[in-house]
């Protein structure tokens, strides 16, 4: 698991980022960008994109979303495209 910053990919536009992730062998992206699901054509990208919805983007809040993400990751086939994960 890597962050965009760790990979040196800051500032790369979403479509180029998704393609770069595919080229690098990634299978999933976790994001807080709620607009990404509306801005990209996911028939072009065979990635699962977990769109995390929480009242605030703090570690203590976001870790509560981990069980939902992990349940998707443990499926035999990873869904392609946006997967909405919301805090309770």
Fold topology:
Blueprint: H1 4-7, H2 14-23, E1 28-31, H3 36-39, E2 48-53, H4 59-62, H5 66-73, E3 81-86
Parallel strand pairs: 1-2, 2-3
Tell me what the structure shows.
With 88 residues, this protein is an alpha/beta fold. It has one domain (4-86). The chain has 5 helices and 3 strands, in the order ααβαβααβ. It has helices spanning 4-7, 14-23, 36-39, 59-62, 66-73, and strands at 28-31, 48-53, 81-86. A 3-stranded parallel beta sheet has the order 1-2-3, with no helix packed on it. The two termini are 25 Å apart. 9% of the residues are buried.
What key phrases describe this protein's structure?
alpha/beta, single chain, three-stranded parallel β-sheet
Number of helices in the DSSP assignment: 5
Tell me the domain tally.
Answer: 1
End-to-end distance, in Å? 25 Å
Q: Give a short account of the largest sheet.
A: 3 strands, parallel
Q: If strands are numbered along the chain, what order do they take across the biggest sheet?
A: 1-2-3
Classify the helix fraction into a percent range. Answer: 25-40%
Q: How many E strands?
A: 3
The average pLDDT score comes to 89
Radius of gyration: 13 Å
SS class:
alpha/beta
Poorly predicted segments: none
């Amino acid at each position: 698991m890597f962050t965009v910053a760790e990979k040196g990919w800051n500032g790369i536009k979403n479509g180029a980022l998704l393609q770069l992730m595919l080229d690098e062998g990634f299978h999933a992206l976790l994001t807080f960008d709620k607009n990404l699901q509306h801005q990209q054509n996911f028939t072009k990208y065979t990635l699962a994109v977990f769109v995390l919805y929480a009242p605030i983007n703090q570690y203590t809040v976001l870790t509560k979303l981990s069980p939902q993400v992990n349940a998707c990751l443990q499926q035999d086939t990873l869904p392609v495209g946006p997967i909405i994960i919301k805090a309770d």
